[in-house]
Write a structure and sequence with these properties.
heterodimer, A: mainly alpha, flat, B: alpha+beta, 3 domains, ten-stranded mixed β-sheet, three-stranded antiparallel β-sheet, about 40% helix
Amino acid sequence: MELSRDVVRKVADLARLKVSEGELDSLVSDLSAMIGYVQVLNEVDTTDVAPMVHAVELHNVLRSDTIIESLPRSEALSNAPRSDGSYFLVPAIIESE
Amino acid sequence: MSYEIIIGLEIHVQLQTKTKIFCGCSTTFNPDHPNVQTCPVCLGLPGALPVLNEHAYYLGVKTALGLGCQIAPYTKWDRKQYFYPDLPKGYQISQFDLPFSHHGQVDVVTGDSSANGGNEPTVRRVRILRAHLEEDAGKNMHDESGRGRDSKVDLNRAGTPLVEIVTEPDLRSADEARRFLEELRLMLTYLEVSDCNMQEGSLRCDANVNLHVTQPDGTKVPTPIVEIKNLNSFRFTEQAIEYEVARQWESFQQTGIRMGAKGGHKRTVGFDPNRGSTYSLREKEEAADYRYFPDPDLVPVMTSVEKINSIRAEMCELPATRRQRILDEFQLSPYDAAVIIDQGRAVADYFEEVAKTCGDGKQAANWLTQDMQAAMKERDETISNFPIRPHVLSALLDRINKKQITIKSAREVFTTLLEDADSGHPLSANRIDELVKSRGLAIVQDTGPIETAIAEVLSRNAKAIADFKSGNEKAIGALIGQVMKSVKGADPQTVREKLLAKLGE
C-alpha cells in the first residue's frame, strides 16, 4: 500500500514531529512497507470471528477509593523543562484570535 | 422567514470521589497549593500504570441510571490524543465507541403550570445520546498582562473523574437549556454523585447551537453549527445561546450561508460574560483528529443485570418523581411542590417529616415556603442548621390544625422559638405549650366569655353599629378588635361570626 506524502505529513504534524521534505521520501517508503507488511492480516478469513476490542483478556481490575500519598511538589516538578517552584511553566498559551 | 432554534449540550460533571479516576491522588479542590496532588500516573510518567477507581465507576452508573440510560454490559477505555499543556500524557483517557452507558432521557418542565387552573405543564423530553467516563485535564493559567509571558500549569485536577453527558439536539431555546441544566444539577445533587459546585468547575457545559430557517418556499435550511465551549454558569449558558441565536439569524439574513457550504463549517467559540458576546477560539489547521485507540494499560469493565439492579436499589427517589408524589400525597399545588423539591433533598426530607407528622401538607408547605424560607434567609442558615427541627415545627402546626392557636399566634411562637434557640434554650413541643399558656394565646373554646364581651362591646359602640347597619362593612373590624382585646385567644373567625349574628338580630 502506497501512502501519500500528504498523509505522512499530516501524521507527522499530529505527532508534532518536524519532518523535512528530504526526510519525507524515505518515511513514505518505510511507512508504506510497514503497512504493507501488516496487511497480510487482511488475507485471513474472519467471517465468523467476533471483533476483538481489547488484546488483554482480563477485566474488572479495580482499586478502592483510598487516598495514596502524592509526590512532594518538588519531585513532581523535577522533570519539567521549566517551573517556578509551584507551577509547570510553558510558553504562553493563546486562547483566542 | 422564520426559524427554529436547535440546541444540544455536552455536560462535564465531576464525580464525588475521594481519589482520582486512575490513581490514589486526592481530588480535593486546592488551587492555593498547586501541584501537590500528583503522582507518576496522573503526571503521565513513563511506566506508570493506571487502575480504575471502582467508586468512580459506581457513581458513573448511578448518574447514568438517573438519566434513564442503558448500562453497557461491557465497556472499555480509549486514548484521545491531542497536545495541550494541561494534558501531561499527550492523550486523555476517555471512552470512544463503547461508552459505559447510552440512550436515556430527561423530562424538563419548560412552561409554568398554573397553580390552580389545572393546566398540564409543558414538558420537553431531552434524549441523552450517551454518558461516558473520562479523566479531567489540569488547569492552565494565562498571563493576563498580554505581554506573552509564560502560562502556568497546575496538575492537581488532572485525572479527576468526569462523566460526560451528551444530549441529542432536542432543546429549542436558551431558557429550555437553562431549565434542563437546573433539573440535571438537582438530580445529580439528589443522587449525591457530584457536588455540582460551578465555581470550582464541578459542572461545565458546552452548547452546540444552530438555527433551522424556514424559507419563503417552505424549505428548511440549517445555519452553520457553533459550539460554545466551557460555560461555567447557567446564566452565562443562557446568555451565550441567546447571543449566538441573534448573531446567526443576522448573519444568515445577510449572507445566506448554510451549514456545510463554503464558509459554513462548524466553529468553536468562547463566551465573554463581560461583553456578553462570543469570540472565535483559534481553529486548528486540521479538523480535530484524535486518533482514538483502545488504551492497552486499562482492561475492560464488565457488569451484570444483578449488579446494575443493586445499584438501582440504592438510589433515592429522583426529584421529578418526588415532585409528582408529594403533589399527589399532600394535595400541593405544582408550584409549592416545585419550590420544595427544587431546594434540595434536605428541604424535601424536612418537609415530608413535618407534613406526615402534623397531617397537613398544605400547612407544612406554606410554612416551609414562607416563614421558614424568610427566617433562613434572614439568619443566613440552611435547612440542616436551622434550629427549629421538623418535630417542633410539626407540633406547632398541629396546634393550628386543632384550632388551639391562630396562625398569627403560631408566628409569634415561631419567632420566640428562634430567640430561645439563640440564647441556647432547647426547643420542644412542651416549650410551645408553655408559651401558648404564659401568653394566653390559646383559642378560647368556651364561647361564653366571647358572648359576654360582644354584648359589652356592642353596648358602648352605638356609632359603629349604626355605621355598619348603614352599609359601612368596615366598621365591624373595630368591633372585632375590641372583643379580641378583652378575650385574649379568641378565634377571630368565631368572633366575626358571632358579631354578625348579633348585629343581624
